[in-house]
Amino acid sequence: MTLTKIRTAAASSLAAAGLLFSLAACSAPATQPTASAPASSAATSSSAAPSASGPCDGVKVIVDSGALKQAAADTSVCVDVDEPTVAADVLKEANIKTEGTEQYPTELVCRVNGVPAADFDITHKAGTYREECKGMPAAFAYWSLWVKPATGDWAYAQEGLATLKVSPGESLELLYTVDGEPAAPKA
Fold this sequence. Notes:
By secondary structure, the chain is α+β, with helices and mostly antiparallel strands. The radius of gyration is 17 Å and the shape is globular. The protein has two helices and twelve strands. Helices cover 15% and strands 24% of the residues. The strands form four sheets. The protein has a six-stranded mixed beta sheet, covered by helices on one side. A hairpin with a 6-residue loop joins strand 9 and strand 10 (155-156).
C-alpha cells in the first residue's frame, strides 16, 4: 500500500470518527445536573404516564433498543412539560438512566437503562462486539438521539442531552443502531 493510500485511509477514518463524535448525541447522563441550563419545569415522575401510542401534551420519550432487541431498555412515556426543557431533565423525569463512557462521561450515551450490558455480545457484520464504555462507541453499534416536532418527521439531534431543549408536543427518541439498522425511528 502506498503512503498516499495509507494517509487517505487514515484521514477517512479520522473524518468518520469525527462525524460519529459529532452525531453521537453529545449527551450527558440524566443523573448529572447541567451547568448550562437551569432546572426545568418538568413535572414529577408520577405524571410521566406510560403511553405506547396516542397524543402527548408534553414530550413523548421513546427508547428503542433497535437491533439489540433488549426489552429492558425499551419504553415509551409521556413527560408532562409546559415549556422548552433540557432533554436530560426530560429523561430523568421519565426514569430513563443514561451512562456515558470513561473518556466522554457527559458527551456520549453508551448505555440506556443498562443496555447494552457489558457482558452482552452485539452481533454485527464483522462478528461480535462487547461495549466496554471506555472511549468512543463503535461506529457500527451506538445509541443515536432523535427529535420529532409536533408536526413533521424525525431528525437526528444536532445537540446532546445536556443542551438540547424539547418542547411540549415534540418527541425525543434514543435509538440503538447496529450496522446502520434501524436507520431512523419508526414513523
